[in-house]
User: Which sequence fits this backbone?
């Protein structure tokens, strides 16, 4: 009997390979433009954090594709890996929001009203995300929000 091809895992491997390929292609530019400069700034730190947290955060999601079938999709290992993946995605989204907010704030001549508006949107987005996360947890635990 031939093993069945898992289409999802295969497409994930292709996506991860392209993701790593992009990092390899741009690494020389990163070394030239960021690492060779003597002065470090907040922009540099945000760039590096976003770039490498994104790279490292893909490891748990990649690992889920290759768990032995004995673990199953509802195992604690699978749940932990997916939780780590979701946490990393949230962190990267927050950092990207900070970068985009700083860019728009600078484009509008450091107008404080624009900054307040943008920070309000970030706050609303975080609030909606937390409410949705709590609602999903509540539904997935059968009404026991703490379990």
Assistant:
């Amino acid at each position: 009997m031939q093993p069945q091809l898992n289409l999802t895992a295969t497409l994930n491997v292709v996506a991860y390979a392209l993701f790593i390929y992009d990092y390899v292609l741009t690494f020389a530019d990163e070394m030239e433009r960021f690492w060779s400069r003597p002065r470090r700034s907040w922009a540099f730190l945000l760039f590096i954090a976003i770039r490498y947290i994104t790279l490292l955060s893909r490891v748990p999601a990649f690992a889920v594709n290759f768990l032995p079938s004995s673990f199953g999709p509802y195992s604690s290992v699978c749940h932990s890996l997916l939780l780590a993946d979701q946490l990393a995605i949230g962190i990267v989204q927050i950092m990207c929001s900070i970068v985009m907010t700083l860019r728009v704030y600078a484009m509008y001549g450091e107008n404080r009203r624009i900054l307040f508006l943008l920070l309000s949107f970030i706050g609303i987005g975080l609030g909606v995300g937390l409410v949705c996360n709590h609602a999903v947890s509540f539904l997935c635990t059968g009404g026991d929000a703490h379990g």
Notes: The longest helix spans residues 76-107. The mean pLDDT is 80. Helices lie at 7-35, 42-64, 76-107, 112-140. The radius of gyration is 20 Å.
